[in-house]
Automatic annotation (TrEMBL):
Residues 1-240 form the Alanyl-transfer RNA synthetases family profile domain. The lineage of its organism: Archaea, Thermoproteota, Thermoprotei, Thermofilales, Thermofilaceae. The keyword Zinc applies. It is an enzyme of class 3 (hydrolase). SUPFAM superfamilies: ThrRS/AlaRS common domain, Translation proteins. This is Ala-tRNA(Pro) hydrolase. It is found in: Cytoplasm. It comes from Thermofilum pendens (strain DSM 2475 / Hrk 5). One of its GO terms (cellular component) is cytoplasm. Its EC number is 3.1.1.-.
Length: 240
């Protein structure tokens, strides 16, 4: 089983690993800092693998595949199990997604608290995030989004520390608001990774986040769309 290094340290930019399997231009490793995607609402990490020869080959996608992570390379390479490689994350891309991802937690918490609105979809890319919410029953949903973005920026500006810890399934299920999420996880999962923004949000979540909300800087509302009664969509990006 591949060790997901980003779950312990979301700020790891380079790592050493041993090749476990090669299939065409897909390379599998004993551990990785590449967050696979699209998964957990986030797009894939990109970056490079440095081969034993010193060659640097682009990782165009990290793909979740049967509980493992396939590092899809721009070209097939001469690697075999047991070879040592160095992984390098495209940090600019990843860090933008970490900021937008953490902001999405705050935005979802604000809309849940005020309207009971649940997230019905979403995708985060480095340049822009989009989230769908069930805002049925909220007449002026556009104003609701605008106010929620203001509130999100106010909370982000409070420099809250984002906590990451592991809980047993039983302990996690006792946290109000987490039940629905945890209930959807496969029964074989014994330990849940919990991401908590104290006083704002607590979720079972496997993805990378920033350590402090002040790193985000703030978000800017880009566009609003209605995709149906239960899917009101907001597009937002980082404040530059
Ligand atoms: Zn998250």
């Amino acid at each position: 089983m591949v060790k997901l290094l980003f779950q312990e340290d979301s700020y790891l930019k380079e790592f050493d690993a041993v090749v476990t399997r090669v299939s065409g231009n897909k390379v599998f490793l004993d551990q990785t800092a590449f967050h696979p995607g699209p998964s957990g609402g986030l797009d894939t990490d990109k970056g490079w693998l440095v081969l034993p020869t010193g060659d640097r080959v682009e990782v165009v996608q990290a793909l979740e595949e049967g509980g493992d992570v396939a590092h899809v390379l721009a070209r097939a390479v001469n690697l075999k199990p047991g070879d040592r490689v160095r992984g390098v994350i495209d940090w600019e891309r990843r860090y933008r997604m970490m900021k937008l991802h953490t902001a999405s937690h705050v935005l979802a918490a604000v809309l849940y608290k005020k309207y009971g609105a649940l997230v019905t979809g979403g995708h985060i890319q480095p340049e822009e995030a989009k989230d769908d919410f069930d805002l049925s029953g909220v007449e002026d949903w556009k104003a609701a989004f605008q106010q929620a973005v203001e509130e999100t920026n106010r909370i982000i500006g409070g420099c809250l520390e984002v906590k990451v810890y592991w809980l047993s399934r039983d302990e996690a299920l006792k946290i109000p608001g987490i039940v629905k999420l945890a209930g959807r996880l496969p029964p074989e999962v014994e330990k849940l990774r919990i991401v908590e923004i104290p006083g704002v949000d607590v979720q079972a979540d496997g993805g990378p986040h920033v350590k402090n909300t002040c790193e985000i800087g703030g978000i800017v509302l880009k566009k609003l769309e209605s995709k149906g009664a239960k899917r009101k969509r907001i597009y937002y990006s980082l404040k530059e």
